[in-house]
Design brief:
Chain lengths: 338, 399
């Protein structure tokens, strides 16, 4: 008991990390996003889609990566967000910001309710229940043809300019910046969350829920909270997709969508937030390029990449950055994990 | 160093086709699924287009006598959502500067590019997507494939005229299924028949025993089905035989389930099934014979034509004719105006582009599965001339 109390580390300490190197690391993705806008003007549609997937993968990272909630049901939130935003614009108001908040509200509520129903289970049971929820949502989307357009998709989304000024143009300038801003806001929220005492407790719950309960952590409430936040974030990604595409297809609610986002996250690396950036970008861009060379080939390339990552890079592609940094500076970064 | 040179060579090789593109190249962006669950569409489109270009060449003289090269740029929609279609269409228009868009196997994919087609004034040839309302999405949409109501309505009319008094319907539980059910029922009852029961089965259903028992108890003269190709329609026909519906004299009527390319999967159970469709693969049109021979010559004996092939063939034909008549750089609406009312000798038979709705008007053939020379084939037993999309007749465009 005589051991000196460790120096309290501020959450900001993590953020600035060990010096200049990580500061550059933090600026990098945002610089890339900004540079992309000015340099690769013709590919803004691609950039927008990548950022939407990044946000979606980020939401999954909170639940799956940090809190250890093993779910395959995140498409339910993504799809619900997309339909909520789309239906809102058709039947209520064409204001995109209002519609976006509506979608976030609806998905947060749905995350809260469905989480309350199923979060008392763990492991395979929980996984099955998330599959059930996403399947039910898909079938509702298919059946409620009057509201969702069913298999034909939701048509007729029209949007007012953002703040009455920035019109959604064919060249996708507005959609790109809008998506980038939303992504940034969510990223800051996520960063603060996972480095707060709340985020630390999630770390503990993932590693040993029983012990956390023993020391008095309200495990169920914590999980419910992060599940709800994650749902809202996924819903926000769905709303962005509906706004950027001005169309919602039933595929947003499909199991495949859940699968793809999981692959992206694992590819990039879980529990490091930036893993979502790397994973979604690499997946999408590799798919795009290989599919242009040969439309039949991309699944093979992405598959090999995923296998190689899982086999050789424990922490996903982000691990490559760590190893590079170690080689360069000889300094070991405190990785996520262990 | 060697590796660097090799890499530079690869980069140069990739860049070369772009550098050689000059003003007289007319690019056509083809969007379809080449991977994933719907991959067969993309490859069927591509084979038919390549066959067409092999027969007719890639160069076509414009009205000024100058040669224009028609170049297809293929993009994979990866069987993913419509947002992918929209993004790729944007890139094709903004970056590749395509003059035409084409392809689209699924309806949501076509609908998601309506805004782009309209804003960028790009004539868009829809080569499959069969939801009736699609062509209303943009004044630049032109469809060469079919609509679901065309098939369903013709099946209903044929049944009413050919001694079927009562019918039962079982359709797959999604939008195209509802459309088929709706138009079959309407036309059948208009002709004096009566639908005495209807069911909707889940999209991936493979156990139809309970449905068949219900039909058997209801004792209709005919059973109308709309089932996705593959395991659902195979299981459906199997259950229809096993549960004794065929033996009880209940006639099975469908639409796209008995296409020639699927028939080898069925056994003799399928004999006698009647379907209402816009393309009978064994027809003797010279265009059809040419298309099928060309496909086999270029892609082997296993290659064969289906509805994707004929639509891609006709769509390519439209583009060639338009460039020949108007040159490589006419206004988008000029091309569309050229397509309106255009008549083509399609491999499927005569077709026309509806001058008002830009949708396909075509013969619907009533075929019956029979066994000829040990092989199952569709034999035409009836035909309706130049059927307009019934949905559009029922829902006139708002002026």
């Amino acid at each position: 008991m005589s051991a000196p109390t460790p120096k309290p580390t501020s959450p900001l300490g993590e953020m600035t990390g060990p010096g200049r190197f990580s500061l550059v690391g933090h600026a990098l993705p945002w610089l890339v996003i900004a540079a992309f806008y000015f340099l690769v003007d013709d590919y803004l549609g691609l950039g927008t889609q990548v950022m939407i997937w990044v946000l979606f993968a980020l939401s999954l990272d909170l639940a799956l990566g940090y809190a250890g909630i093993v779910t395959l049901g995140h498409a339910a939130f993504y799809g619900l967000g997309a339909y909520a935003a789309g239906i809102f614009s058709i039947h209520v108001s064409q204001d995109p910001i209002l519609g976006h908040f509506f979608a976030i509200g609806v998905t947060a509520l749905f995350g809260l309710l469905s989480g309350a129903l199923i979060l008392h289970t763990t492991g395979v049971t929980f996984l099955m229940l998330t599959l059930v929820i996403v399947s039910i949502m898909f079938e509702i989307g298919n059946q409620a043809r009057g509201l969702t357009g069913g298999d034909d998709g939701l048509q007729g989304i029209r949007l007012d300019p953002i703040f009455g000024v920035f019109d959604f143009d064919l060249w996708g300038h507005t959609a790109y910046i809008y998506t980038a801003v939303v992504l940034f806001i969510w990223f800051v929220i996520a960063w603060r969350l996972v480095h707060s005492p709340f985020g630390r407790s999630l770390d503990g719950i993932r590693q040993n829920a029983r012990r956390m309960r023993a020391i008095g952590t309200p495990v169920w409430w914590r999980l419910l909270a992060i599940y709800t936040i994650s749902a809202a974030m996924a819903g926000s990604a769905g709303a962005l997709s509906a706004h950027a595409t001005k169309f919602v297809g039933l595929s947003v609610l499909s199991l495949l969508t859940s699968g793809v986002v999981t692959v992206m996250l694992i590819l990039g690396g879980t529990r490091r937030l930036y893993g979502a950036f790397i994973g979604a970008a690499i997946y999408y861009i590799v798919q795009e390029w290989t599919a242009q060379i040969s439309p039949y080939f991309w699944e093979f390339v992405v598959g090999i990449m995923l296998i190689a990552t899982v086999l050789f890079l424990d922490g996903g592609l982000m691990e490559l950055g760590d190893r590079g940094a170690r080689l360069l500076g000889g300094r070991r970064r405190a990785g996520g994990g262990e | 160093m060697k590796r660097f040179i090799r890499a530079a060579g690869v980069v140069a090789a990739l860049a070369l086709p772009m550098a050689s593109a000059s003003a007289d190249v007319v690019k056509v962006g083809l969007l379809a699924d080449f991977t994933g669950a719907f991959a067969v569409w993309g490859s069927q489109f591509q084979q038919a287009i390549k066959a067409y270009q092999e027969v007719h060449g890639t160069k076509i003289k414009g009205p000024d006598g100058k040669e224009n090269e028609i170049q297809f740029v293929y993009r994979d929609l990866t069987s993913a959502g419509p947002e992918k279609a929209k993004q790729l269409a944007e890139e094709l228009v903004l970056r590749e500067k395509v003059k035409f868009l084409a392809g689209f196997d699924l309806s949501p994919q076509a609908m998601s590019v309506a805004d782009i087609a309209t804003q960028a004034k790009i004539p868009t040839i829809i080569m499959n997507a069969a939801t009736a309302s699609i062509t209303r999405g943009s004044p630049y949409f032109v469809r060469v494939s079919m609509t679901i109501p065309q098939h369903g309505a013709a099946a209903g009319r044929w049944a009413a005229k050919n001694g079927v008094k009562t019918a039962y319907t079982i359709v797959s539980d999604y939008a195209p299924g509802y459309d088929a059910e709706n138009f079959f029922t309407k036309e059948f009852e208009k002709g004096g028949g009566k639908v005495i029961g209807s069911e909707r089965s889940p999209q991936q259903e493979t156990n139809y025993a309970a449905y068949m028992e219900k039909v058997l108890r209801a004792k209709p003269d005919a059973l109308f089905m709309f089932q996705p190709a593959g395991s659902p329609s195979l299981a459906f026909v199997k259950a229809y035989i096993e549960r004794g519906l065929k033996a009880a004299g209940i006639k099975l009527i469908g639409t796209g389930e008995m296409q020639q390319i699927f028939l080898p999967q069925f056994n003799d159970d399928a004999i006698g099934v009647v379907t209402s469709f816009h393309y009978t693969e064994t027809n003797k049109n010279p265009e059809n014979i040419a298309l099928r021979a060309q496909l086999k010559k270029m892609f082997g004996q296993d290659a064969d034509a289906d509805i994707a092939s004929v639509a891609a063939w006709d769509g390519t034909d439209l583009i060639y004719q338009a460039v020949a008549a108007l040159g490589p750089s006419a206004d988008g609406l000029k091309y569309v105006d050229f397509f309106k009312g255009k008549k083509l000798n399609s491999p499927r038979g005569p077709i026309m582009i509806d001058p008002d709705e830009r949708d396909v008007i075509q013969n619907i053939y009533i075929r019956q599965v029979e066994k000829r020379d040990g092989k199952l084939v569709n034999i035409d037993i009836g035909q309706e001339d130049m059927v307009k999309d019934p949905w559009k007749l029922e829902n006139p465009a708002k002026k």
